[in-house]
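ok new one. same drill as before - structure tokens go in, u give me an amino acid for every spot. 307 of them this time. try not to just spam alanines like last time pls lmao
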């Protein structure tokens, strides 16, 4: 087993090649894998690793680390791979041989300038697989109903369906449009890392793991997965081939990230956020409460406890 570079009560971070770490891990020992590898875009990483491989070499390398991720994943565990669509197409074909495909999640983030003779690249691909027929844990968040940003009014005509809307919010779809890029240097922990939003990891960790479960991310970067896992009471195993001082420093500012996540979570699993609800009431628009009378007739079971 490689030597630990950092640890908390819940997690362990190793500074080494993830292949070396995984080869030292038991089979079937983690509940959730999230992987955000380098995209082979010829970027310069502090570790000096080669990010400009021939396509076939990049795919072979990816298959090698994925094979190890599959081995360490427990039956019923979930695996997520964040990459460009170009790479996730062949990687999905590989994963289909060993795991059960759940979703190709398109995360709407513009990541390059428009290119002549090409469509404007506007989404990252998030592959979602599970080991075995169904995932052991699956509790996706529900999102607030989209409303007009100016008047908080409906964007669609819900007609007679208002009273059938779930008061806990709208089903999470496989297109995510509410994940912010971490672009501004001020908010980045590591200037040269492709740091992901903690909102993205919060959603994944919440959807596919329970408290106390083990989350594994082989490509640490700035440590987003580890910070979110720590905040959410998951055990975690991490690995980064380059310097790990930014990850370690990040744990000193965890209370700020915890507060940010609390603010995000306050606006989930409800049909209207507190702010939108106030605006709608002020503007005389319908709310769950105002259509509740009708709902008692349509979905009595949902309201039986309120009698
Ligand atoms: C795209 S970044 C991950 C960013 C991370 N998800 C975040 O939000 O900060 C990929 C990271 O993987 C690291 N890396 C590349 N090859 C590796 C390997 N073989 N083992 C461990 N880490 C590796 C790179 O140094 C880089 O920091």
């Amino acid at each position: 087993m490689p030597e630990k570079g950092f640890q908390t009560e819940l997690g362990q971070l190793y500074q080494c090649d993830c292949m070396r770490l995984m080869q030292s891990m038991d089979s079937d020992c983690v509940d959730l894998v999230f992987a955000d590898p380098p995209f082979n875009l010829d970027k310069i990483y502090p570790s000096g690793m080669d990010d400009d491989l021939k396509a076939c070499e990049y795919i072979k390398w990816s298959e090698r680390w994925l094979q190890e991720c599959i081995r360490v994943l427990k039956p019923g565990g979930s695996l997520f791979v964040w990459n460009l669509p170009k790479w996730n197409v062949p990687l999905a074909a590989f994963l289909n041989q060993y795991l059960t495909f759940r979703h190709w999640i398109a995360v709407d983030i513009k990541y390059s300038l428009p290119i002549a003779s090409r469509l404007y690249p506007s989404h990252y691909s998030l592959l979602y697989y599970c080991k075995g027929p169904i995932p052991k844990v699956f509790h996706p968040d529900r999102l607030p109903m989209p409303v007009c940003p100016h008047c908080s009014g409906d964007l669609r005509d819900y007609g007679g369906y208002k009273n059938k809307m779930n008061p806990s919010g709208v089903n999470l779809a496989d297109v995510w449009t509410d994940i912010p890029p971490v672009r501004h240097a001020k908010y980045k922990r590591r200037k040269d890392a492709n740091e992901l939003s903690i909102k993205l990891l919060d959603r994944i960790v919440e959807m596919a793991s329970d408290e106390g479960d083990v989350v594994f991310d082989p490509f640490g970067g700035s440590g987003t997965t580890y910070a979110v896992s720590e905040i959410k009471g998951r055990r975690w195993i991490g690995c980064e081939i380059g310097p790990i001082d930014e990850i370690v420093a990040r744990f000193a500012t965890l209370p700020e990230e915890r507060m940010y996540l609390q603010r995000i979570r306050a606006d989930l699993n409800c049909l209207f956020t507190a702010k939108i609800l106030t605006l709608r009431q002020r503007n005389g628009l319908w709310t769950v409460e105002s259509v509740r009378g009708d709902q008692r007739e349509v979905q009595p079971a949902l309201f039986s406890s309120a009698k």
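Residues 17-18, 36-38, 45, 47, 49, 193-196, 218-219, 221-222, 224, 239-242 surround S-adenosylmethionine (CB under 6 Å). and btw Confidence is low (pLDDT under 50) at residues 295-307.
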